[in-house]
Design brief:
By secondary structure, the protein is of the alpha/beta class. It has helices at 15-26, 41-46, 48-68, 84-109, 161-164, 169-172, 189-201, 220-233, 323-337, 366-371, 387-391, 424-432, 437-441, 451-461, and strands at residues 2-11, 31-35, 112-115, 117-122, 125-130, 133-145, 149-151, 166-167, 181-185, 204-209, 236-239, 242-246, 252-256, 262-266, 269-272, 276-278, 292-293, 296-297, 310-312, 351-353, 358-363, 376-382, 398-404, 410-417. Strands 1, 2, 3, 4, 5, 6 and 19 form a seven-stranded mixed β-sheet that branches. A five-stranded parallel β-sheet has the order 8-15-9-10-11. A five-stranded antiparallel β-sheet has the order 20-21-24-23-22, with helices on both faces. The radius of gyration is 24 Å and the shape is globular. The structure holds flavin-adenine dinucleotide. Flavin-adenine dinucleotide binds at residues 11-17, 34-37, 41-43, 47-48, 51, 117-118, 146-149, 169, 190, 279, 283, 314-315, 321-324, 326, 354.
C-alpha cells in the first residue's frame, strides 16, 4: 500500500475545505484534499446553489402565472406550464459547471485532490478508503477537518420512510414531479425557502413549526413581513405544533398543537428541515478525543482544535453553519499554516434568507445592542418610499440601521424585501470598515436603487431623512 507524505491534509471538499486547499496551494504549502463525494460539498451540490436555482425557477414560473391572471403591468401570458425535469437538469448544469470549476481551480493552483473517504488514524495520519478498502495512507504535518454537516432526521419518520414520502432538502432539490401537497416540517430558512419555491411551482404547502413563530433565529419585526407574504402565497403555517409521525396509511402527517389537540395534514411528500448537525461520526474523528462544543468540534479564534496542528472549519465546527463563514475560515487557516498572523474575528457574519421577501441580518439588532449594554439608536426606511422598489412591483419591507448613540458607529443592519440579499455586501463592508451613520448618509448612492433605502435609513437615524 502506498504511503504519501505532505504538509496539509484537508478532509472534505466543501466551501471550507476547497478554499483552504486553494489558498494553501497558492502559498506553496504541499496540500492534499480528500473528498469522498463531490467537490463543492453541500453548498454547491445540495445546498446554497441548487436551492437558489430552484427558487429562481419557481419565481419565474410564478411570475408567468401571475401575468396569465392579468396584471396591471400590461404583460399578457397564456397558460404557462413548467417541465420540472428540465428545470432540475438546468439546475444540475449549474452545479456541474461550478463543481468542475472548483476542480480546475484546485488543479491550477497545485493542490492534489484524492477521491475517497478519509479515515483518521491519528492526528498526523489519514487512510483513504474506497468501497471499504484502504487505497493509500497519507501522513501530514497539519490536518484540517472540513467534513461539513448532515440534515437532522426525525427518528420516528426517517428520510426515505413512508414509501419515500419523507424527504430531506437533498431530495427536495431534485424532484421528478411537483407534489400536489407538501408538508414542510421546520419553519427555519431551509424549510421556508424550499416551501415557498414549491408553492410557486404549484404545490399546496403547509409548514409545521414547534415554536410560536417562523424563522425563530431572526428578529420578529423582520419575520412578520415574511409571515404576511406566506399568507398571501397561500401557505398554511401551523405554529406551536409538533409532528407526531405519519398516519397509518402514510397519507398524512399527524400534528399536535400547544393545547394537545391532534390533527392530520394530508401530504404527498414531507420535507423534514429541522436543522443540520456537524458531521463528526464514521471517519475515526472520535479517536482524536478532541474537545467538543456539543456535537461540534471546539475551535479557538484561529480554528485550532484542542490537538496541536489539527484544525477544524465550517459546519463541523458548529454555528453559524454558512458557506461564507466556512470559506473565510478556510482561507485563514491556510494563511496561518503559511506563517501569517490571522485571527477569525469578523465584525459580522451576514445571514441571508432567500425567502420571498428576502431577509438579511448583519451585526447587532436593536435588542442585541441593548442586551450588550450599548446605548444605541436605530431607524428604518420602508421600501414603500423607495422608487426602485415600486418599479420592481414590490414595496413591502424595510432597511433598518442600528448605531451607537454616542459616536454613531454602525453596529448592525437588518433588511427585509425583494432583492435585499444583494445589500448584504454593503452592510458587511460598513461594519468591517467601522463606518458611522454620517459615512453612509454622506455617500452618494445611485438612483434609482434599493441602496438608496440604506442611505435614507442612516439619514433617518441622524434625524433628517429626505424621502419620508
Ligand atoms: C438546502 C440548503 C441551502 C443552503 N443555503 C445556504 C445559503 O444560501 N447560504 C449559506 O451560506 N449557506 C447555505 N447552506 C449551508 C451551507 O451549504 C453550508 O454551511 C456549507 O456547505 C458548509 O461548508 P463546509 O465546507 O463546512 O461543509 P460541506 O459543504 O458540508 O462539505 C463537506 C464535505 O466533506 C466531505 N466529507 C465529509 N466527511 C468526509 C470524509 N471522511 N472523507 C472525505 N470527505 C468527507 C463531504 O462529502 C462534503 O463534500 C445551505 C445548506 C442547505 C442544505
Amino acid at each position: 500500500m502506498q504511503t504519501t507524505s505532505t504538509t496539509l491534509v484537508v478532509i472534505g471538499g466543501g466551501p471550507g475545505g476547497y478554499i483552504a486547499a486553494i489558498r494553501a496551494a497558492q502559498l506553496k504549502i504541499p496540500t492534499i484534499l480528500i473528498e469522498g463525494d463531490q467537490l463543492g460539498g453541500t453548498c454547491l451540490n445540495i445546498g446554497c446553489i441548487p436551492s437558489k436555482a430552484m427558487i429562481h425557477a419557481a419565481e419565474e414560473f410564478e411570475k408567468a402565472k401571475h401575468y396569465a391572471h392579468g396584471s396591471s403591468i400590461g404583460i399578457q401570458v397564456s397558460d404557462p406550464s413548467i417541465n420540472i425535469e428540465q428545470t432540475v437538469s438546468w439546475k444540475d448544469g449549474i452545479v456541474k459547471r461550478l463543481t468542475s470549476g472548483v476542480g480546475a481551480l484546485l488543479k491550477k493552483n497545485g493542490a492534489q485532490v484524492i477521491k475517497g473517504w478519509a479515515q483518521i488514524i491519528d492526528g498526523k495520519t489519514v487512510a483513504v478508503m474506497q468501497d471499504g478498502k484502504e487505497l493509500q495512507r497519507i501522513t501530514c504535518q497539519h490536518l484540517l477537518i472540513a467534513s461539513g454537516s448532515t440534515p437532522v432526521q426525525l427518528p420516528f419518520m426517517p428520510f426515505g420512510s413512508s414509501n419515500g414520502k419523507v424527504i430531506s432538502s437533498t431530495e427536495a432539490l431534485s424532484p421528478t414531479e411537483v407534489p400536489k401537497k407538501l408538508v414542510v416540517v421546520g419553519g427555519g430558512y431551509i424549510g421556508l425557502e424550499l416551501g415557498i419555491a414549491y408553492r410557486k411551482l404549484g404545490a399546496e404547502v403547509a409548514v409545521v413549526e414547534s415554536l410560536d413563530r417562523i424563522l425563530p433565529a431572526y428578529d420578529e419585526e423582520l419575520t412578520k413581513v415574511v409571515k404576511t407574504a406566506l399568507k398571501q402565497l397561500g401557505i398554511e403555517v401551523h405554529l406551536g405544533c409538533t409532528v407526531q409521525g405519519m398516519n397509518a396509511d402514510h397519507s398524512a402527517v399527524r400534528i399536535k398543537n400547544a393545547a394537545g389537540e391532534e390533527s392530520e395534514l394530508a401530504c404527498d411528500k414531507v420535507l423534514v428541515a429541522v436543522g443540520r448537525r456537524p458531521r463528526t461520526e464514521g471517519f475515526g474523528l472520535e479517536s482524536l478525543m478532541l474537545d467538543m462544543n456539543g456535537r461540534a468540534i471546539k475551535i479557538d479564534d484561529q480554528c485550532r482544535t484542542s490537538m496541536r496542528d489539527v484544525w477544524a472549519i465550517g459546519d463541523v465546527a458548529g454555528e453559524p453553519m454558512l458557506a461564507h463563514r466556512a470559506m473565510a475560515q478556510g482561507e485563514m487557516v491556510a494563511e496561518i499554516i503559511a506563517g501569517k498572523r490571522r485571527h477569525f474575528i469578523p465584525a459580522s457574519i451576514p445571514a441571508v434568507c432567500f425567502t420571498d421577501p428576502e431577509l438579511v441580518v448583519v451585526g447587532k439588532s436593536p435588542q442585541e445592542a441593548q442586551a450588550a449594554g450599548i446605548e444605541a439608536i436605530s431607524a428604518m426606511f420602508p421600501f414603500a418610499a423607495n422608487g426602485r422598489s415600486m418599479t420592481l412591483e414590490s414595496s413591502e419591507g424595510f432597511v433598518r440601521v442600528v448605531a451607537r448613540k454616542d459616536n454613531h458607529l454602525i453596529l448592525g443592519w437588518q433588511a427585509v424585501g425583494k432583492g435585499v440579499s444583494e445589500l448584504s455586501a454593503a452592510f458587511g463592508l460598513s461594519l468591517e470598515m467601522g463606518a458611522t451613520l454620517e459615512d453612509v448618509a454622506g455617500t452618494i448612492h445611485s438612483h434609482p436603487t434599493l441602496g438608496e433605502a440604506v442611505q435614507e435609513a442612516a439619514l433617518r437615524a441622524l434625524g433628517h431623512a429626505l424621502h419620508i
